[in-house]
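user: can you give me the structure for this one chain? tokens are fine.
assistant: on it. calling the predictor now.
[tool input]
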Amino acid sequence: PLLPQGVTVTAREWVKFGLLLKDRGRGKGKQIVGAKLLDELIVGSKVNPAYGLTFWLNADGIGPSGSDRANLSGDIGAKKIADKLDIFMAAGAGNQRLYVIRSLDLVVVRFGIFGDFDDREFISKLVAGK
């Protein structure tokens, strides 16, 4: 399925996918997907340095509405996700998230509901005790 157009998976399946991304395509001791190919997913464009190929990156950019104003997902894409972290994320409906932070060997899946949610606040609290 095309991730930007909707995919339904369990939290456990998201974690498996996140681990594959975190480990640059390695799983169970084998290279399953080429690392260079996966690395291309998390390179921003000149048009929007905060967005790779279906992943939001830790860079200032423009939000999904095409402006730097807040939208239904907060101001995702307008500002960095977190300070000083090599984080990238998939963002879904209802504030569902898949965060990958390679330097912390961390994959986080968040299933949520619509309402107030701030990625920067969530991540800062999550890694505060690192």
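assistant: here you go. The first strand starts at residue 26 and ends at 27. Confidence is low (pLDDT under 50) at residues 67-73.
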